[in-house]
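Slide 14.
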Amino acid sequence: MQYPFISTSTPRPDRSPLVLARVAIAVAAVFLTLWSQWGQSAQMSFFGNEVLRDAFIRLRSTTAPDPRILIVDIDEASLNELGPWPWPRARIADLVEILLTRYAARGVALDIVMPEPLDAAGDTRLALLAQHGPLVLAQAFDFDFAHLRPQALRNGVPAGASTAYRPGGGIEATGYFANHAGLARAAHVGNIGFIPDPDGALRRVPLVTTFDGRQYPALALALVDCCSGKPPLALDDTGLMRLSYKRDWNAWTVTSAADILGERIDPASASGRLVLVGSSSMGLGDRVATPHASSRPGLGVQAAVLSDLLDRQQGTNPAPWPGRLFACAFGLLSALLAIVAFPRLPAIASVALLGVLSLLWIVVAYFTSRHDPVFATTGPLATNLFLLAVAVPHQWQQAQRKSRRLLDTLRQYVAPKVVEQLLRSDLDNALQPRHLDVTTMVADMEGYTSQVENLSLEDASRLTREFLDCLTGPVMAQQGTLDKYTGDGLVAFWGAPLPLEQHTDLALDAACEILERVALLSSERQRAGHPPLRVRIGIESGPAMAGDFGTSFRSIYTAVGDSVNTAARLEQAARDFPHDVIVGAGAVERACRHRFLLLGERHLRGKGRPTILYTLDRAAHAAAPAGTPGQPA
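Slide 15: predicted structure.
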């Protein structure tokens, strides 16, 4: 069938600039993720990355003690009982001997630096224990990279140099704070110096320190290598080691030094353990900021290092995952969604999608962060923030342009919900004529002339307006498209400009609501002494050509086809029936939620064969549960 209409739709716009803009935004977003992982991530995302990792650490924190480690704390109670610090070296030697003999500890590490001799007998005993026993002494290397100190630290005699580590590895130190010369022959000495992050927190420690061409292990590393009972650790990484901080201070097994010296604890509680001796006393100032809190004993950090190294030695540390690749894949996913999904979504939905993606990435980063200490956890979040700042406003601007074009044509006769769906769609020209399956409604007032012949012009105008309100409101509420007004009636259709799954049921719902509104208006007018009102409605479903038709002078969005003409004939046939709604066979076939009464066959004008007529069985519809298929009674 040929339709003698001329489409006045605007020419299809060139989409190349829009596509290029979307691709450019996506490429920039992916580049941001790549840069965060392999570029200047330390400067760009340090604080966000560490804040997120700190939160993960606190979430994963356990209160279960580590049975391999015992902390002997020179705490306030010990100082009150045995005297202030510094203690005589003989007392420290007693503490070490009791731990190694009476309590059968596997090894002891002193988180204490002794730069000056105090008492000859005690220093001699400590020196002998350090030369021949499983005792690790401490020394602190200084990492003054910015050279803020007027003079480099040089105190004591560094000891414990090793050639077992990778040449050229380790962190270069600028100075040291070591033990006095009498302890320089100790077999095992470990570094307790550290490098805080820019925010002051201690998250990484140097496993190996390089000074004057020699390499020195960390305190915990020296203790593991000498006293764990297993071969020394083979290190691939001798730089900064990120700590897992699986436990906060209160989760470690801690006993007071005074209780050890007084032998007041069960010997089995220390047997076979690696022991760290230090102080949590506020007065001794060994406090650091950790992911758990802003002030924690440095002794707890040494325990965290020792626990991670023991896990590594025993092969129980988390297997490595490619966190950077995960982050880049997630950034690419976000960028692709920006290209594909954003044009089909309103701005608020695009923002919500980015929010969901960000939450999903946080979950992925939570599990991945245990397996990869290097990747930037906030890389994809930065990408999503970029998309939020650039892609969403860009798409919003394009949507506004598209909205203005559509609204200029549609706002007068298309239901608001349909307009919203059109704006969310990715159709280049939603008004271009297309073959669609539609349901058409034709509604009219019966006896309009007799209703208005005795009314003033003002009253007649008011009646027409009120009657058309009764017709138009339900049409719009049920997602219908208003084709045109016919004086005292209208033509509307469902299923265009966008397809609707249940367009017939929506039209029938609108018809039922129209009947109720007209009945209410009729009752009001009858009380005022006017004759009753009746509406005639014809409804039919079938294929039609729907689109923007017209000439160079005027165009209109309408639907044309046999089912549209049939609906008009059904409305005219209603004058011969007591039923207000006459429904065609096509509508009955497509209805799912309504029941019908068979009225028989009739020859309609312009039809070569008789047409089967139905009407709504409104009583059955009111009693039927939702979803009951439509069928003639």
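Speaker note: The longest strand covers residues 535-550.
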